Amino acid sequence: MSRARSPRRPRLIVPVPLGLAPGLALGLALAGCGSVPSAGPAPVSTATALPAPTTATAPPTVAATPSGTPSGKPSVTSSASASARPSARVSTRPSSTAGSGGATSHPVIVIDPGHSGRSIRSRTVNGLLDVDYPNQPEMREVFDVSSCVAAGLRSDGYRVLLTKAHESSSVSLTERARIADRAHAALAISVHDDHSQGPTFQAVYSQLGLTVDGRHHAMWRGRGSHRTVFDQPSVARASDRAARLIARARSRAEGRPVRLAEENFAGRPPLEPGNLALVQLLTHRPWVYNELGARAGGSTTSELTVAQETAYAQGLLDGAEAAVPNGDRSPATRASLGRCLAARR
Ligand SMILES: [Zn+2]
């Protein structure tokens, strides 16, 4: 296995004074990754697999929003109006394409390793701030895990795209979402870990969110006229089904509970407030966002062990294949994960 990055080396953690180096300050402020869950853990219950992949599908299209939307390529449309709480909606027609991934025997899975090599910020078409930043040691770890899960999926007959070519690549969240959309991915999974959180924090986030009093609520980001609601029910349901399967597989592989949870971006500027990862909001494909509590003892900088990375990779591989079955799950693929991750050190 070729190595996509330089060998790991001891890292110095240097305090950065506030007001200096905006990119660094941003990185520090966000070092907790994206992992402030809200609400309690939800039980991981029996779930069904995503719809079986079908033959090539048409691109997702945009359904009418409250203000009406031209059909055509996926877009985020604003419905800024005189309403008291204007909301844009990311919307597709209720789609039979959710969960389909192209050719029957080779479904597409997109793997999204968290973070970018440099701090980047732009605006989505709807005016939401699209922010990404480096975060080590997480960025190295999740790129390795993602690369080895990708290798495993490919050896089991899947077509796999990574949203980053290299660990140090900088790719906006908008572009990451587009990669999955263009590929008509059956499933996309974001891979993160969080060194500010201990091992009891293991989370999986879907585009459906959690139920409150038996009901689902809006999944959204942004404030004022930029407030954007995820309004793709069939995609959200497919994401929820996949999230449950991935949570179960990760629980088994990691030997500890991995729970469905919901994010809370309130009070974390420059991140937009809301409860859904931006990449999940912007896409038209089922997307599951994973976090792994990675703190070791009192250290927030100790790297994951190969065994920990392997367990994470195993759960992601098993969960993705359960969510998008293609009838070919090789034990050899699982055995190779540890070798793959060890080789990347
Ligand atoms: Zn992260």
UniProtKB/TrEMBL annotation:
Pfam families: Amidase_3. PROSITE patterns: PROKAR_LIPOPROTEIN. GO terms for molecular function: N-acetylmuramoyl-L-alanine amidase activity. The keyword Phosphoprotein does not apply. Residues 50-98 have a biased composition (Low complexity). Residues 109-248 form the MurNAc-LAA domain. GO terms for cellular component: outer membrane-bounded periplasmic space. GO terms for biological process: peptidoglycan catabolic process. Residues 50-117 are annotated as: Disordered. InterPro entries: MurNAc-LAA_cat (IPR002508), N-acetylmuramoyl_amidase_3 (IPR050695). Keywords: Hydrolase. This is N-acetylmuramoyl-L-alanine amidase.
